[in-house]
Amino acid sequence: MIQIKGLHKWFRNHHVLQGVDLEIKEGETLVIIGRSGCGKSVLLKHIIGLLIPDEGKVFIEGVDLFSVSPDELDRFRLKLGVLFQGAALFDSLTVKGNVGFSLYEHAKLPEPAVAAKVKEKLALVGLSNIETLMPSELSGGMKKRVGLARAICNDPKIILYDEPTTGLDPINADAINELILAMQKKLKVTSIVVTHDMTSAYKVGNRIAMLYNGSIIGIGTPDEIKQTAHPIIRQFVTGSAVGPITAAAQEYTA
Amino acid sequence: MPTEIDKIKRIVSLRVWLAKVGDQSIKLASVAGGLSYLLRDTWQIMTSTRLRWPATLEQMYKIGVMSLPLVFLTSLFTGIVLALQSAYQLRLFAAEQFTSDLISLSMTRELGPVLTAMVVAGRVGASIAAELGTMKVTEQIDALTALAANPIRYLVVPRFVAAVLMLFVLTIYADCIGMLGGYMIAVFKLGISSPQYIKRSFDVLLIKDVMSGLIKGFFFGGIISLVGCYFGFNAEGGAEGVGRATTMAVVTALVLIIFSDALFTAVFYFI
C-alpha cells in the first residue's frame, strides 16, 4: 500500500532522515516509535507530501508521490486522513466547519448532506451536539476526537496519526487508542501511528518500527518488539535511563 | 607597532564582520526571492481559479472598513498640520490662499497613499502575519494542505485582493479627509472663503495627480498583504516565532512602502 525507499532529508546541516526504508501493507496498523525529535513527524510529513525528500521515494498504491502533478497529489491527499499532534483544528471555523471542511471544499455537497455526514463522523468518535462550538471551547481530548472526525470525514483509505495520545491524561489516551482500533475494525483502513507512548504502540499496532538516528533499526510485531535483544530498542521500550541511547547522547555532548 | 596578535585579531574581526554581511545579504536575498515566488503563485492562482468571495469580503471588511477610524484620524490631523505649517510659510509672501492648492496636491500625490499604507501596514500587516504565523506553528497550514486545500488560494488570495482594492478605496477616503482637515483650518482660522477653498482645491488637481496616488495605493495594498502572508507562512517555533514574524512583516512592509514610493514618485515626475 505504502512504500518508502531510501528517504533522506536534510535541514541545513542536520541529516534528519538517513535512508528510511519501510513498507506498510494494506489494512495494517504500523506504529513508528522513536525519541522526541528523531524525525518521526518529518517522515510522516513526507507521506502526506508536505515535505519533499532530498533523496528517495514514497509510493502510495504503486505511484511515486513526488513525480505526480500538484492536482494529482491533491487527489492522493484526499485518500489520506491525518490527525495532527495538536489536532490542528482551524480556529476560525466551528466544529462542523472543521469536520466537514473537505465536503464543503471538494465534494460540494448540499448543506443537509454535509450536516448529516458531520453528525455521523462525530458519533463515530463518540461526540454529539457540538457542531456549533468553536475549537477554543473544546478540551484537549475533544479536540483530538474532532481532529480524528475531520480526518475520517472523507472516508480515507489511509489514516496517519501524529502522536495521538501526547498531552492527554491516561483515560483520554486510552479512549483515543480505542478509537484507533475502532477505525481499523469499522473502516478497514491502513494506518500509520507515530508515537513514543509504548502503551499505545503495543495496543494499536500490528507491527512496530523503531526510528533511530534517521533510519529504521528494527521492525516487528508488538510481541517481537517486547522480547527484542536489540539493545537500543530494548532501552527505548523499557524506558530505561541507562543504555546505549543515553550513552551515545552523553558521548556526543561530552 | 602592532604586534602579530593584533594583526591576527584585526583579520579575525574583519572576517566576522564579512561573514555577518554575507549572512544578512543571503537572508535579504531569500526574503526577496520568497516574496517574488509568493507573488507569482498568488497571481497564478488568482487568475486560474475562482475567487472565494465570502472570504474576500470578510477580509475587505477587516482590512478596509475596520481601518476607517484610524485612517480618518491620521488624515484629518495631517490635513490640519499641513494647513497650519504651510500657512505659516505662505503668510510671509501673503500667499495664504495657495494653502488649498498645496494641501490637495500633497494629499493626493503623496500623503494620502503613503500615510494610509503606513497605518494599514501597522494594523493589518501585523494582524495578517500574526494570524497566519499562529496557523503555521499550530500546523493548521499543514492541515489545509493535507485536506487538499491550497493555502495560497485559501489564505493569501483573499487577503491580497482585499488589500489591493481596499487600499485604493482608503486612499480616496484619506485624500478627502485630509482636504477636509485643511479646509477646517483654512476656512475657520485663516479666513479663506469656503467656495474659494473648494474651487482652488479641485481646480489645481489634474487626473494625473489623483491617479498617481491611487496607483501607489494599489501597489502598497499588494505589498502589505504579501509581506504579512510571507512572514506568517515562514513563522517558526511557537509564540516567540510569531512575534518575530509580526515585527518583521511590519518593518519590511514599511521599508518597501517608502522605497517603492520614492520609485513611483520619480517615475511619475518624469511622465
Topology (SSEs and partners):
The complex is a heterodimer of chains A (254) and B (271).
Chain A: E1 2-11, E2 14-24, E3 29-33, H1 40-48, E4 55-60, E5 63-64, H2 70-77, E6 80-83, H3 95-99, H4 101-107, H5 111-124, H6 140-152, E7 158-162, H7 170-187, E8 190-195, H8 198-204, E9 207-212, E10 215-220, H9 222-226, H10 231-238, H11 244-253
Parallel strand pairs in A: 3-8, 3-9, 6-7, 7-8
Antiparallel strand pairs in A: 1-2, 1-4, 4-5, 9-10
Helix pairs in contact in A: 5-6
Chain B: H1 4-48, H2 53-63, H3 68-90, H4 99-137, H5 140-146, H6 151-188, H7 194-203, H8 207-233, H9 238-270
Helix pairs in contact in B: 1-6, 2-6, 3-4, 3-6, 4-6, 4-7, 4-8, 4-9, 6-7, 6-8, 8-9
Q: Structurally, how many domains make up the residues of chain B?
A: 2
% residues in beta strands of chain A:
15-25%
What is the multimeric organization of the chains shown? heterodimer
Enumerate the strands of the largest sheet of chain A in spatial order, edge to edge or round the barrel: 6-7-8-3-9-10
Instruction: Determine the N-to-C terminus distance of chain B.
Output: 60 Å
Number of helices of chain B: 9
Alpha-beta classification of chain A: alpha/beta
| Backbone shape of chain A | globular
Q: What is the overall number of helices of chain A?
A: 11
The major pleated sheet of chain B works out as: none
SSE arrangement of chain A, N to C: EEEHEEHEHHHHEHEHEEHHH
What is the count of β-strands of chain B? 0
